[in-house]
Design goal:
By secondary structure, the chain is of the alpha/beta class. The chain has 10 helices and 7 strands. The protein has helices at 2-8, 41-53, 67-76, 93-101, 115-120, 137-147, 174-177, 180-190, 206-217, 243-249; strands spanning 58-61, 82-86, 108-112, 128-131, 160-163, 221-227, 230-235.
């Protein structure tokens, strides 16, 4: 199923007339110039597009240096509430200064917590969920289970979930282009390993894609858009109670 999903989301999106973010294909960007946001330009443009395609509350899981938090706030404007959850606080006064400069301080809530802890007291519907925290299969599955059912479409707009680092990303190809000796060394060590390591780093996390696969396979979501490693799904239905068990055994 994973390979099928990769093939499905590989096609280019050639829409016109919706905004600057549709021109991301004009630019070249790889992981060396992603700055504070830690996203490629095409990925950030897609996240912006997802904000514009939805309405209502936005929940971000994982903010690192909070570049994505600023982007979400700027795209959402003053009519929406943004909640950013991270169990660490790497952001500094610059984040609050940037949010204040946008005039959105009252609309952005910085939460220091795990997504599970936050979900216990969560009572707000969400229109857009951005998952970019724990990149393991178990971590992403936990985030999905904790907040998926809070997603609600509103104002005749879809409920969307954006997953960063979910798809193979060519923005990282430069890392291995001139590392022949390193690849030979990995190949040699793999002869003595139980768990083989790839000679070329994939530039994405297979565990994230596995969770997305399962959501689509069970008819709970459909692919909305993709760019770089960013995959955006459209919610179709709530999770069944045994979703986590089924996903783990898939």
């Amino acid at each position: 199923m994973t390979q099928a999903l990769i093939a499905k989301v590989d096609e280019p999106i050639l829409e016109t007339g919706e905004g600057f973010e549709d021109l991301a294909w004009l630019f070249t960007c790889d992981s060396r110039n992603r700055g504070l946001i830690r996203q490629g330009f095409d990925e950030a443009a897609l996240l912006w597009k997802a904000v514009k395609a939805t309405s209502g509350n936005i929940l971000e899981i994982g903010r690192n240096l909070a570049g994505s938090t600023v982007l979400l706030a700027a795209a959402a404007g003053p009519d929406r509430e943004i909640y950013s959850i991270d169990k660490r606080s790497n952001e500094d006064r610059a984040l609050r200064a940037n949010i204040a400069a946008l005039g959105l301080s009252e609309h952005v809530s910085i939460v220091r917590s795990t997504s599970e802890e936050a979900a216990r007291d969560w009572g707000n519907p969400i229109d857009l969920l951005f998952i970019d925290g724990d990149h393991t299969f178990e971590g992403v599955l936990t985030d999905v289970v904790a907040h998926w059912n809070a997603l609600q479409a509103s104002d005749e707009k879809p409920a969307l979930v954006a997953f960063h680092d979910a798809l193979p990303n060519e923005n990282f190809k430069w890392r291995d282009a001139d590392r022949k000796m390193n690849r030979l060394w990995i190949r040699l060590k793999n002869k003595f390993r139980k768990q083989q390591k790839p000679e070329v780093a994939p530039g994405y996390e297979p565990g994230i894609l596995k969770v997305c696969d399962e959501l689509i396979r069970q008819g709970l979501a459909s692919k909305w858009r993709s760019a770089g490693s960013m995959l955006v799904l459209r919610k179709l239905a709530d999770l069944p109670r045994n979703f986590s068990e089924i996903a783990q055994n898939a």
